């Protein structure tokens, strides 16, 4: 199953990249080499230009080489915060296209999908998008199709929603290269209890509760899905109740039992969380953000936003921008 030449992976890191995603990629590969007793995988950490950069925990990190010097990569993965991107987009994106033309598979983890999508190399491809970035990503790249799966592989494009999903992606590569026994031992080394493949959806918090959305009763879970899919044009609660096969009163009772709030309150929470993603991670105006989550005016959005988060959208955006400039801290990094 193994090849004579090691599979070589490049990890292109941008300022603010999530360190957990990098270690979740490299550590299983290191373990696979050790278990197999040979160098089946090699890797290089790449920067756009020479010099150190700050990772998500404000740790200074020195890449091994610059992107211009990267050659012979079997895979290249982009690691970034959602705000990450090339200082010189024309040169950087051209270099990525060069690598792909010469046989490199390309992918991204967590916020790295933003610069990868901006390169044009995800056009007509499905991408795994972390739930906390999804609204912002769809706003910036409305032509691209997002998936809630933890990882997606689509015709030479490898995307993972977050650090744990990146570990799963590496397990898949280990399985292909060294077989299932080595892959399983790697998973056990790191006490990785569940090996997730394509088609497994992300776990998404049911806001205001300690449970997860898949743990809720079927009518409530279905209502949550309808709410999530209809943020821009909110549905009447009566229509949602009819769609999930219960009365409005039953839906109200179910939401209060499971989520300790009404369906309307929960719906607003979803809309506020989507708005917050766009406030922090996009450059859209407040009017555009308001319209995208079903508000006619930005003033109504701002009032509800303040009730939900204790700050106005403008205050939140100024604070996020200050962190990026002063501390290089993406909010959040997963």
TrEMBL record:
Keywords linked to the UniProt accession: DNA-binding, Transcription, Transcription regulation
SMART domains noted in UniProt: HTH_ARAC
GO MF entries: DNA-binding transcription factor activity; sequence-specific DNA binding
Record's keyword annotation contains NAD: no
Superkingdom of source: Bacteria
Pfam family name, one: DJ-1_PfpI
UniProt-listed Gene3D superfamilies: 3.40.50.880, Homeodomain-like
Transcription as UniProt keyword: yes
Ranges where the HTH araC/xylS-type domain occurs: 221-319
The name this protein goes by in its record: Carnitine catabolism transcriptional activator
